[in-house]
Amino acid sequence: MGKGKNSQKRNEQDTGRKREETEIQAKEDAHLEEYGQLTLDRNKGSRRIHLITIIGEVEGHENLSGSSKTTKYDHILPQLAQIEDDESVEGLLVLLNTSGGDVDAGLAIAEMIASLSIPTVSLVLGGSHSIGVPLAVCTDYSFIVPSGTMMVHPVRMNGMVIGTAQTYEYFEMIQDRILTFVSGHADIAYDQLKGLMHNTRMLARDLGTVLVGKEAVDAGLINEVGGIKEALARLYQMIDRKSLGGGKN
């Protein structure tokens, strides 16, 4: 009788454990589908890494059409605050494939990531254009795949624009915020970046510069050409160094 009770108890424990694992997996799947986020913790060192994806257009205060693939900054910011507050999260990996979007929203996300106390790494996949540039360089270390692209161009504005000196001064102020942030978080000078932004020789219908893979590294925007293997290896290294008291980088 005692053996039967013990066996029944073990079965109940196993069933409860499987149910809990299934619920956790379901929550992670729903979180990934809704926000493009999940926690990576099955690596060799069991390091807990939070993954955030910045895909499509960065959405600001106005909702874009339902058919547009967007990243909502009002979803990302609370998650970043939660990551900073969660002592179990050891690192952040940011995957980017974005056409740009709202300047204020993009800079808000970039500033938030840059202020995290945990090691952070970004990986540009496909493209990281316009406001995607600050988002790519805001981490402690950055990668771009060989075919990845980055487009640097002047600020554009939708809707009615009043042709006054104050309007152009406002545009200059917005561009200065972007140039200052990027030059402060990447190995590129303010004036050099401004030159790329106002380049007239590359784009037929616009100003700006498109950099592909190694060109972004050579320009000083991105640290290294690499993929997910290299990005995770670097993040593991940074986490291990920090745990030994050596800082994030």
Automatic annotation (TrEMBL):
One term of GO molecular function: peptidase activity
TM region(s), chain numbering: none
Pfam family name, one: CLP_protease
Keywords (A to Z) from UniProt: Hydrolase, Protease
InterPro entries: ClpP/crotonase-like_dom_sf (IPR029045), ClpP/TepA (IPR023562)
Region (Disordered): 1-30
Example of a GO biological process term: proteolysis
Name of the protein in question: ATP-dependent Clp protease proteolytic subunit
Source organism (scientific name): Candidatus Enterocloster faecavium
